[in-house]
Amino acid sequence: MYQNRTTLIGFLGKDAEKRTTKNDVPYTVLSLATKDSWKDRNGEWQSRTEWHRCIVWGVKFADFAGGLKKGAHLQVEGELRSREYQKDGVTYRIVEIRTKSILKLDRAQQQTEAVPQEAEPSDVPF
Questions:
Q1: Which candidate among 45, 73, 85, 104 keeps its CA 20 to 30 Å from the CA of 65?
Q2: Which CATH number fits domain 6-109: 2.40.50.140, 3.30.1330.50, 1.20.1260.10, 2.40.100.10?
Q3: What is the per-residue pLDDT across 27-54, written as a single tens digit (0 to 9) for each?
């Protein structure tokens, strides 16, 4: 049995970006920050912020995610996906989260339920 499932809890670093593919399939890109803190050998607190690129597919789901604003506290669940692309003759490899659900954790919006993703489009570029 195999499983590819990731759960992240963090804050949006910027407003969600609504986009479309060359074939007019809507998707939204989220930039989610998670933070880790620890004490070093000297007993001093250290921290590190990790940035995660989350991709949201599906007409209704991408539209919902497109309304999210910088600073929103979210739980994001999905699958890790890696892909390669070339720019100026250099090959880059990135890892993204193909988002399956989003739960708003903001205190004012705690009653919001997780939103499931629609069926995946057939022309997803990766």
A1: 85
A2: 2.40.50.140
A3: 999 999 999 999 999 999 999 999 999 9
- What's the predicted TM-score (pTM) here? 0.78
Side chain identity, residue 99: T
Please report which helix (H) or strand (E) contains residue 45, including its range: strand 45-57
pLDDT of 123 over the 60 cut: no
- Take residue 65 and report the two structure tokens written for it: 């995610």
Closest to 4 measured CA to CA, from 71, 74, 96: 96
Q: What is the DSSP string of 88-102?
A: TTEEEEEEEEEEEEE
Cα separation, 6 vs 38, whole angstroms: 22
Domain boundaries, the chain: 6-109
How many residues belong to the chain? 126
